[in-house]
Write a structure and sequence with these properties.
Blueprint: H1 22-36, E1 41-47, E2 53-59, H2 63-79, H3 88-106, E3 112-114, E4 120-124, E5 128-135, E6 138-147, H4 149-158, E7 173-179, E8 192-199, E9 210-217, E10 220-227, H5 245-253
Parallel strand pairs: 8-10
Antiparallel strand pairs: 1-2, 3-4, 4-5, 5-6, 6-7, 7-8, 9-10
Helix pairs in contact: 3-5
Length: about 260
Amino acid sequence: PTESNRHTISCYPQENTPQKPRNLRKLEYEQHQLLSRTGEGAQFTMTSADGTTFIISYTYANDDDINDLSKKDNRDVTNDVTSSTPSENEQQSSNKNIFEFVEGFFSGRDCLIGGSGWWQYEICYGKHVIQFHDEEEKRTIIVLGIWNHQKHVEWINTNPNKKSDSNIKERQYVSLYYADGDICELTNMPRVVEVKLRCLIRENKSHVPAMYLVEPESCSYVLGIESSVFCDLIDYIDENGIPDYDKLMKHFYEQ
C-alpha cells in the first residue's frame, strides 16, 4: 500500500506563555518522580459492582526488577500447583461470615448501602429504606418507605401474586412492603417500596449481595437484594411472607 503523507507540525508558545505546555511539564515531572521512587510502594482500594472491596498494593520498579519478578513468578507457578479444594478452616470461616451477615442484616443492626450515582440508597431491615446524597458535611435524605408490619400484611393480602411460592419459578423470592415514605410531589402520596430478597449464586460462591433500585411508577420503588444466603429463605417465612428470624438463625447456626 502507498505510504500516507506525513506532515511536520511545529508549535510555538504565544507571547508571555511558558516554553512548554503545562500538561507536558506535568507529565515529565511525574515520569521523573516514578524513576526516582523505584523500590517504594503504595496501595489503594477498589470496590466492584457487587460491593466487594479489594486492596491493591504495588511497588515502583525498573525493567530489571520486572524481569526478575517474572522469572520468580514462573518458578512459583511451577512449584505451587495444589488442589483448589477449600480447607476445613476456610469453610468454617466462610460459614461464620455468612452467619454474621445474616444475623446483622435481619436483626436490623447492619444496614446495606447501594448505588454509585448522585443518589445512594440504604435499607435497614425492619426499619426503613432511604435515598441519600452526601455533600461535604451535609446529608440530604428522602425516606422511601418505613417498615410497618400491619401495612405489609394488608398489602400482601391485597396482592396475593406477591406471596412467595416455591412451586412457581417467577415467585421464588420474598417480597416485603415498606410504606409511609416522604410525600411525593408528583402523586401527592407517600412513597412506597417493595423489597425483594432473591436467591443469587455466583461462580465464586460469594454471599456478598447485589442490589438495585428501580422506579416502575412515580414514587413507587422496587429494591432488589440478591444473594446466595436468600436461596433457602422461602422455607423460613410465616403465613404473611415475613422471614421468621429465630428459625432462620437456627438454620444458619446449624450449618
